[in-house]
Predict the structure.
Amino acid sequence: MYTVPKLADYSPEALEKAAHELRTALEGEAAKVETEAQLKDFRNRWRARRSGVVTQITKVWLGNAPPGRKPNVGFRVNLLATEIDEEIEGCRRRVAALDQLQAYDRSQEKTKLASERLDITLPGVRRPIGVKHPVLRMMDEIVAVFKAMGYSIGKGPEVETDYYNFESLNFPPNHPARDTQDTLFIAGQERKAARDRLMLRTHTSPVQIRTMEQQPPPVRIIIPGKVHRNDPLDATHSPVFHQVEGLAVDTNITFCDLKGTLDHAMKALFGSSVKTRFYPSFFPFTEPSADMQVSCIFCGGKGCRKCKFSGWIELLGCGMVDPNVFEFVKQYGYDSSKISGFAFGMGVDRIALLKYEVEEIQLFFQGDVRFLEQFA
Ligand code: DAH
């Protein structure tokens, strides 16, 4: 740290050298001043009345100067005092600027904190409690009716192989019956064996086979699920829809069991006054096959627009399990000379359209809350 030296002689050169050393020290110390406290120390060191550098050079340099040199030394001391004051003023300005910068930073920090603050006294955002989607609700209702009759629930994959979706259900390769279910295939499967090729299942019936592979008879199973077909969208068709499939296999299962079971189920779903009837039909995996109709739930059978004035509404396909189907699961204990079974499959969305009197199937899949909240 700089201390004021005694001057050896008072020649202009010696004075000049001493002044230069003082200035170098002054600038060096000034450069380090950044805070209010440092500024105060700095000002005291150079300007304090009793012992500051200015006081010292006045005493030591001017006080000891021979009379002839006093004007010169006095002029130099004054000049240095001015330079010291300017340096102090420079430091003061810098400290003030730094201070302002820090204050700005602090206020930024404050507004940031304020905007991030959590006001726990504000009321919370109310999230409406959802309700079951009408299709899911319908599906659960149908499943519940069969559960009450002792059926258990089966599941299977939505991406299915040709084998389960068609072949094992007695749709031979290239058979025209496959055209009744416009299929969405997974691309790039050409190198696989035909039966291993993947597709989106077109019905829940493949789960019949998967179930029989998993357990020996007797079987009573109800299978809800999503299925896909390459059907263009219209008021009653959607490429994605839902089915509930049923399968019962045991000794001595007859068509009477099928009729009784489905008749009971329809009365449980639509009310005890509803009637059922069975019409001949065809499915590769049932023999005989039937379409089941219910008396119109809107007009009670008198005839109206909904039932196209026939008094009846077609609801599902069913039949006795074809012995050819049991052939595919023979090794799992299904011997068609000893056992028999019935199966049925229904479109859930179609039944929901009827039951909730909805005009367009798309409404079920558009996710419009204004529509859906009517089921809350
Ligand atoms: N899987 C058929 C379809 O999607 C519906 C069906 C008909 C299922 C008869 C059955 C059945 O189990 O026995 O068109």
Observations:
- The chain has a mean pLDDT of 93.
- Residues 203, 205, 245, 283, 286, 317-319, 343-345 surround 3,4-dihydroxyphenylalanine (CB under 6 Å).
